[in-house]
Amino acid sequence: MIAMCLYIEQKQDAEARNPDRKHGAVLLIVLGVILLASWMLVQIIGRVTEEVALRGVDDQNDAIRAAAFQSLEITIGVLAEIQLLDGGLYSPAQGWASPLGYAGFPMAAVSNELALGSGGESEIRGVDEMAEFAFPPGIEVDVEIRDESGRLPLNQTSGERWKLLFEEMEIQPADAATLADCLLDWIDRDNETRLNGAEAGVYQRRDPAYLPANAPIEDLLELRLVEGFDRLFFDEHGVPNDLFRTFRNCVSMMEAGKVNLNTVHPLVLEVLAEELDFEAQRVADFVRGVDLEAGTSDDLVLRPGLDDPDVPTDNDGEPLDFSATCRYLTVHIASRSAGTVFNLSARLDTETPSGEQIYPMTILDLQTKGSTL
């Protein structure tokens, strides 16, 4: 990269004297970026394949665990390469829906939602029979990547937007207003009760009595303590119901900022359409491409500077905001063999390099779980 910068600086004066050489310099810069991205991915894959070759499979549990962590490293490498080449991560349609297939691993089945709530399996597969890389025999790895920016941030969403979401969930308007106000009262730091909300006075009358958190929610199950949610989102035993599960799929614990229209959950898309006055179906149809199927090769990407006559606009013909990137991603990896499964979940900040400079992005959280079928 340093050499590339020096090259650019040295060429500036020459380009000013000879404009005809400008296009050649631009081409060299582009090629340099491509080479850098490819080098970065090859380095990560090279380290992974070396570890696989050296480890052996005497201990199958260790091999399954290693395959999961190696898949995470490969996923990070793929994301970093696409981010560099495309100038940002906007949609799985850029190629990162199937990171193992992108990297050349054979039969890398990747279940991905495209953050559209489909929960379906992507048709994009790494099926190159001549692939250079492979995990030890008998080990299968599934990777699912979820974009958190396709959801509403749980601790940073307005009351009006919450009301719209609850109504889209077919909750009665009176209950929707209660849920929105009680949620905000539970999160905010003051003790002032909103019109339909609840503060300490309500919770202290319960048996046993308790106080509202007055702080951001860290676990969605905390909602069983919140007025309104306790009776609508849980049964009499405190077990989450279908409304809870629908809500969980619409929200993110991350501070994701703007909602990404490429990966937005269908209910959240309806909320935005109502709020910003555009047709939700037009956005959904555009990103799915000609076949109107999510997760296929003709999917389109909404991003800044998009030049397409069919690009979605609001009902006044004004362009929508496509600047949201997939900054926060949740990666779920399942590595399995002979009835044993190792699960790994990682949350990534794709726009902040790791402090140790090990990876080009930061792993914010990492959880593992092993099980036997």
From TrEMBL:
Its main location: membrane. Residues 156-231 form the T2SS protein K first SAM-like domain. It is found in: Cell inner membrane. One of its GO terms (cellular component) is plasma membrane. The chain crosses the membrane at residues 25-45. Keywords: Cell inner membrane, Cell membrane, Membrane, Protein transport, Transmembrane, Transmembrane helix, Transport. The keyword Coiled coil does not apply. Belongs to the GSP K family. PANTHER family: TYPE II SECRETION SYSTEM PROTEIN K, TYPE II SECRETION SYSTEM PROTEIN K-RELATED. This is T2SS protein K first SAM-like domain-containing protein. It comes from Pontiella desulfatans. The lineage of its organism: Bacteria, Pseudomonadati, Kiritimatiellota, Kiritimatiellia, Kiritimatiellales.
